[in-house]
Amino acid sequence: MQLAVLGAGAWGTALAIAMARRHRVRLWCRDPAQAQQITHERCNRRYLPEVPLPEDVAVTADFPEALAGADLALIVTPLAGLGATVAALARERPNLPFLWACKGIDPERLALPHRIVTEAWPETLLPPRAGVLTGPSFALEVARNLPTALVLAAADAHWAKHWVEQLHQPRLRLYAHDDVVGAEVGGALKNVIAIAAGVADGLGCGLNARAALITRGLAEIARLARALGGRDETLMGLAGMGDLILTTTGQLSRNRRVGLMRATGKPLAEILTELGHVAEGVPTTRAAVALARRHGIEMPIAEAVHRLLFEPDLAAEAVVEALLARDPKFERP
Ligand SMILES: NC(=O)c1ccc[n+]([C@@H]2O[C@H](COP(=O)([O-])OP(=O)(O)OC[C@H]3O[C@@H](n4cnc5c(N)ncnc54)[C@H](O)[C@@H]3O)[C@@H](O)[C@H]2O)c1
Ligand SMILES: O=P(O)(O)OC[C@H](O)CO
């Protein structure tokens, strides 16, 4: 089978390396200079310098060439590029099934990825055959073939199961799911809680505080997922709790690093420049807080992260103190 991986950041490159263990892969990179660099050096020096690209992964900056002969496309741009990539895919290969692997919520339209896909898809075409690929997965570990388990969710469970069978590997285990909303909310919101965990760790709040943040963070995520039509049980699985544990505790998380740097008092713009990669938790925090207000849901951790990110003059300690000063209550999911 031939796969087109659209997006050559850390995650697109890692997925191309992993998928090439079972399939032929073409990796599309929107920047021609970067495509040339990867082709010549067989390594994505900017986004995943640690792992060489197998010889049989073809790299191109030509979108139609990436899709020629493909049986499936994996869209692995940041969320901000999803709509444009889907629209281009619809023009080039309107019948090609695809998966998106970006995590986040659009802060302007307050839209989850599946809605961005639907809105970018031309009404004149049949609905796309598509789903989301998500779950606890640091790019570097997947590229190094360390054991990883992911969720492939689509409204049509049979379709999801079919693609799980095609893509599954012993060290890249895929689980089929039919709760797209739950899977997407889990993948988006864990980044917000990871920023909070980074701040708490950066301030030396301790391991008890981190465990509390993870648990109460999961309660906030589940509340939002429920309001948007997702199922609780999904949030207890890989796409929810699994990804939350990884991102709040793993040193490789970019979102957690945003929190660690914020704890030192660095301004957000400087943090993002230093990071050099997308941190989806930043725009998603805006979206989460707006959605919580719209649906009347309590999300105190997300609110605190919002203040930390977008009120630059506030000391991180003051925001944490305000979070801790909330009135006692029943522990509710
Ligand atoms: N890195 C990981 O471990 C990981 C794991 C799972 C999911 N994800 C998700 O995958 C998505 C991509 O993350 P990443 O780690 O690859 O990011 P990255 O910062 O490493 O790279 C981003 C890449 O996307 C390209 N890009 C930016 N805007 C684009 C657009 N409009 N169209 C096409 N390409 C565009 C950039 O040139 C760059 O190559 C994010 O939503 C992220 O949350 C990342
Ligand atoms: O590095 P982060 O924080 O973007 O997280 C990467 C993946 O989403 C972890 O599953």
User: Which structural class is indicated by helix and strand composition?
Assistant: alpha/beta
Oligomerization category of the chains in this entry: single chain
Distance between the termini: 43 Å
Instruction: Enumerate the spans where pLDDT stays under 50 for 5 or more consecutive residues.
Output: none
Looking at the overall shape, the CATH architecture of the largest domain is 3-Layer(aba) Sandwich
- CATH level-four homologous superfamily name of the largest domain: NAD(P)-binding Rossmann-like Domain
Number of strands: 10
Subcellular location: Cytoplasm
Family: Belongs to the NAD-dependent glycerol-3-phosphate dehydrogenase family.
EC number: 1.1.1.94
Binding site for NAD(+): 7-12, 139, 254
Which labels suit this protein?
333 residues; two-stranded antiparallel sheet; N-(1-d-carboxylethyl)-l-norvaline Dehydrogenase, domain 2; binds SN-glycerol-3-phosphate; alpha/beta
Describe the structure.
The chain has 333 residues and is an alpha/beta fold. It has two domains: 2-178, Rossmann fold; 183-324, N-(1-d-carboxylethyl)-l-norvaline Dehydrogenase, domain 2 (Orthogonal Bundle), CATH 1.10.1040.10. Helix content is 52%, strand content 14%. It contains 16 helices and ten strands. The strands form two sheets. Strands 5-2-1-6-7-8-9-10 form an eight-stranded mixed beta sheet, with helices on both faces. Strand 6 (72-75), helix 4 and strand 7 (98-100) form a beta-alpha-beta unit. The chain starts with a strand and ends in a 9-residue tail after the last helix. Bound molecules: nicotinamide-adenine-dinucleotide and SN-glycerol-3-phosphate (G3P). SN-glycerol-3-phosphate (G3P) binds next to helix 8, helix 11 and helix 12.
